[in-house]
Amino acid sequence: MKLIFELSKPGRGNKVLTPYQTTLNLNPTAEVPAVEIPAAFRRSSAPRLPEVSENDLSRHYNALARRSFGVCDGFYPLGSCTMKYNPKINEVIANLFKFTDIHPLQPKHTVSGCQTVYALAEKYLCGITGMDAMTFQPAAGAHGEFTGILLIKAYHDSRGDYARKKVIVPDSAHGTNPATAAMCGYEVCSIPSTPDGMVDLDALRAAVGPDTAALMLTNPNTIGKIDKNILEITKIVHDAGGLCYYDGANLNAVMGVARPGDMGFDVCHLNLHKTFSTPHGGGGPGSGAVGCKNILKPFLPGSAIGGGGGEQSVGQVKMFFGNFLVVLRALAYLMTLGNSGVREAAQTAVLNANYMKAKMEEAGYVCAYPGICMHEFVLDLSQLKKETGVSALDVAKSMLDHGIHPPTMYFPLIVHEALMFEPTETESRETIDEACAVMAEILKTAKEDPEACHTAPHHTVIGRPDETKAARHPVVRYDFNS
């Protein structure tokens, strides 16, 4: 496929007008005086933009679309990321012009509807999480983590408790957790998991002390299990004077069923672009809304409805009020489902995961942790690799030939040949049965013809690239001289 620059021919161009634009006066008289841009900030030459006809442009983007893969194209069981179908009603609501044609600097009385969106979203999400207040400024999950840990730091500092320099993170945590703690200036203390994937209570007791600022934890955890000792875990941290941070990446399994606030957590972030069915991937937009208990409320960034932003606030973490239309989509999702629907979604996600896990074990795969899981489960392909040489990567690449997006690979790190599956509640039993049949076929191929797996995929647009070279020497600019 040619790049857009390779399609470019001097002098070609197009004028694309949307139906909405054609109803407007395209040459209105400006209501504000023109401002001349200083010469120092003006280009001396025109940008080297591609020059293509509307026909070429349309075909180019359609060709790109055919090469991409999303939840609307096929099964997408990306573990720990909740890549579920986004209902189209969310998009309809988010595209209403009275929501899209506003500006964050408008007077408050002209955007009361948007303020109501934030107020309702805060009310519903605080109810789901057991928190007392929420900010929607953070633009993504990791950004939400960063904001949440800043709240904890501000809390300790406000009490003059500057000795708390350590954040405890389980060894099965998402990689963003230790990164977030380090970015906020904390020392990261990793504690091991027990053989059944739970937090090691003895190791936790040994780790906490007067230097403990917080514990960062996901529950259900990264292997898809609810930690049976969660109330004891949060008590140990609180008794040591620390606070408990809830990573909301896996909330899809428990929303409407169990609340982080009731488990003893003081602050949490939510991935609205995961759990609450708004677009996910491609770099954004996302929303990492942060909820907290009242003890942390004074430190929140300012909100669109007047909360937070006081003298003790950690300050703005994003311009204005966050990605508004993402919050709007999440609110549409919540209002469509209602209380019972939210609970049913979580229960169906857990049912689907356990059904798929049982089918995979029946096919001959080995799960890293036996027993009932929550919304996701982890396969351990260590023995398969030892017997056949076929790795988790080989199996994942083989899935591409069957039109299935691979699951998360080599995570969590405590499972060496890991494939993590999360089928989500939006997948039907028929889709899961088809996917399990494909996995059984791949397992059979791995044992009978390992080389076929080593060289997969065979029927995709491109074959298997040199991923090490692609990561270390990416080509991200077009060379006009080539």
Automatic annotation (TrEMBL):
The Glycine dehydrogenase C-terminal domain, residue ranges: 345-448
Domain of life from the UniProt record: Bacteria
Aminotransferase class V domain: residues covered: 166-281
Keyword annotations of the record: Oxidoreductase, Pyridoxal phosphate
Gene Ontology MF terms in the entry: glycine dehydrogenase (decarboxylating) activity
EC number(s) given by UniProt: 1.4.4.2
Catalysed conversion reaction: N(6)-[(R)-lipoyl]-L-lysyl-[glycine-cleavage complex H protein] + glycine + H(+) = N(6)-[(R)-S(8)-aminomethyldihydrolipoyl]-L-lysyl-[glycine-cleavage complex H protein] + CO2
Role noted for this protein: The glycine cleavage system catalyzes the degradation of glycine. The P protein binds the alpha-amino group of glycine through its pyridoxal phosphate cofactor; CO(2) is released and the remaining methylamine moiety is then transferred to the lipoamide cofactor of the H protein.
NCBIfam families for this protein: PRK04366.1
Name this polypeptide is given: glycine dehydrogenase (aminomethyl-transferring)
Gene: gcvPB
